[in-house]
Amino acid sequence: MWRFAAVVGAAALVSGAAGAAPVPVETRAEAVRQLKAAIEDELRAIELLKKDPPHLRAARDRIYMSADRVSGVHDFLSGVPDAAAGQDALGGARADDYAAGHLLPTHYGPRPKGLPRAIEFLERALLRKRAGLPFVQEAQPPPAAAQCSDGKDNDRDGITDWTVEPGCTSSRDVRESTRFSCGVGSKIVTGRLVLSGSCSGAFSEIEVMLLDDVTLNGRWDIMHAPSCGKTTPKGFRCTTKAGDKNPKHLLDIRLATTSPFPDQRVQLRFFDIRKRQIGRFVVPPVVVPQTP
């Protein structure tokens, strides 16, 4: 029997995974090769699971091979200066792989109920592996001046400099084109679903949408948001504080929903000052296998 628990520390699934065998990685060139191969394994696993019927055994083999490659690259990055963020991305990808693997049965039979969520975990792992790739490739020299405070629209998105440019995390950033990303976890606190974390750049609006069959059921609160629009049974959209009013780009959202359990997904969409979407993030529950 499976029970879903919204726990941010999904890496616990990895440490106890049977058969985990990191691929040895000793050079930067080998790290790049193994991480690119892991990305190809992930793409193939997703393709196999989307077939009708899904090729479960072959997909599981690809998933765990990808996780083993990532483990080797993760260990290699421990000796690379300024690569902590890359390690975090790959550690999260590895946890997502094992969470997906736990959802797939080892035998052939009816289409497993956990298949859609397994694919979600793999798609998120794919994004994280791609995010880790720049940390193992040769670093490019940064621009001479900080683009986020030079008064120019360097990435030509119509927005200039910190504090409103979504590609800037501070006025000292050397590039305006930093990819927008978020690290958001979920848990249940006193009966309410709590979403908390932070994002990599400025955003001016956020949309919160409950997925599946879950709807709002009473009070909800969102920090760092001075005004919100009309609430629907599935969610709401708010204007948020950005820049120096929320310098760490923090998120803290508390929801009362119609589900008493943490097995509920929430979609977050982020918008810049011109109301253009700059990011989309689905906060899924973490699957924890329970003994019978």
Total E-strand runs: 11
Largest sheet: 5 strands, antiparallel
Helix content class: 25-40%
Q: CATH fold name of the largest domain, please?
A: Four Helix Bundle (Hemerythrin (Met), subunit A)
User: What's the Cα radius of gyration?
Assistant: 20 Å
The 3D shape can be described as flat
Distance from first to last alpha carbon: 6 Å
Q: State mean pLDDT (0 to 100 scale).
A: 83
Count of separate DSSP helical elements: 5
Supply the helix-strand structural class. alpha+beta
Q: Determine the strand fraction and express it as a percent band.
A: 15-25%
Order of helices and strands: EHHHHHEEEEEEEEEE
Sequence of strands across the biggest β-sheet: 6-7-4-9-10
Keywords:
292 residues, alpha+beta, disordered C terminus, five-stranded antiparallel sheet, 5 helices, single chain, four-stranded antiparallel sheet, disordered N terminus, Four Helix Bundle (Hemerythrin (Met), subunit A), Immunoglobulin-like
Structure characterization notes:
The protein is an alpha+beta fold and 292 residues long. The chain has 5 helices and 11 strands. It has helices spanning 12-15, 28-49, 56-77, 84-103, 115-136, and strands at 2-5, 182-189, 192-199, 205-210, 216-222, 227-228, 235-239, 250-257, 266-271, 277-283, 286-289. A hairpin with a 2-residue loop joins strand 2 (182-189) and strand 3 (192-199). The longest helix has 22 residues, at 28-49. It starts with a strand and ends with a strand.
